[in-house]
Specification:
mainly alpha; 272 residues
């Protein structure tokens, strides 16, 4: 049994403080009355109200949400298909090259990814804007979805699919009615991870953006270079809240699905 020594307690405390204390301070100072972000002037929510009148931030937030939803959806579809190909079809020509291309964005520096996407769009004559950002985000988030879904498929009981096909269900129907509902928690987790990575991206978006397609991280970075304002703290607090609620919601949904699946398996075993 692990004993909590004084050294362990101090190390863990300092580690968590280093990670989360800046976030806590940012949230606290987003409710600061004073315009000086480092001087507490009393509690106020006026900076959140002023966000409603900051059209530049609202436009950037809307672009970020649209890019995040669309790129996460495309990445989930492509990543799931890639995971199925890697798990179910272990022998096909070019599998090593294919797996390397799927996993490469996981370890590729964002600067290289962004620059390569920029050169590609320039070479094919595609104007930079909303769609180039979406394609770039889909490219690197697809790898994360593939890893998440692949880990679930590796432990998948294929006898359930075989039973469905023995009863006359074609492969497509088997996938949508048997396989997909079972791996749905992993697919949803992959979508959520892709969405979070998309709304958090700055480097790749900076290379692939164009006029009228400024994401929220880009807008925040451009304003921070001129000085941190309480409005920036408010925006960041809202993003933290959205990510936190998304992670908590995904955990609850996944847990409920696992509990329901265990109940169904026990009921099937009892009936047998």
């Amino acid at each position: 049994m692990l004993k909590w020594t004084r050294f362990n307690i101090v190390s863990v405390t300092l580690g968590f403080a280093f990670l989360y204390l800046p976030i806590v301070l940012l949230v606290i100072f987003s409710f600061n009355e004073s315009k000086l972000v480092t001087v507490w002037g009393g509690f106020s929510t006026k900076w959140y109200v002023q966000l409603l009148y900051n059209q530049a931030l609202l436009d950037a937030a809307w672009v970020t949400v649209r890019v995040g939803v669309l790129s996460a959806t495309l990445a989930t579809i492509l990543g799931t298909l890639a995971a199925i190909a890697l798990v179910r079809y272990t022998r096909f020509r070019g599998r090593i090259l294919f797996s390397g291309m799927v996993y490469a964005p996981l370890v590729m520096p964002e600067v290289i990814t962004g620059l390569s996407m920029l050169l590609l769009f320039v070479a094919i004559g595609l104007d930079r804007g909303f769609w180039t950002i979406t394609l770039a985000h889909t490219t690197f988030t697809m790898s994360f979805v593939a890893v998440v879904v692949q880990s679930r498929l590796l432990s998948f009981d294929r006898s359930i699919e075989e039973a469905a096909m023995d009863l006359g269900a074609p492969p497509i129907r088997t996938f949508f009615e048997i396989t997909l509902p079972i791996i749905a928690p992993a697919v949803f987790s992959g979508w959520l991870l892709a969405f979070i990575l998309s709304i958090d991206d700055l480097v790749t978006s900076s290379f692939t953006s164009g006029p009228g397609a400024t994401t929220l991280p880009m807008k925040i970075y451009s304003q921070v270079r001129l000085g941190v304002t309480p409005e920036i703290n408010a925006v960041c607090t809202i993003l933290i809240a959205l990510v936190a609620f998304g992670v908590i919601g995904a955990s609850i949904i996944t847990k409920r699905r696992e509990v329901q699946r265990e109940r169904d398996e026990r009921a099937a075993a009892a009936a047998a």
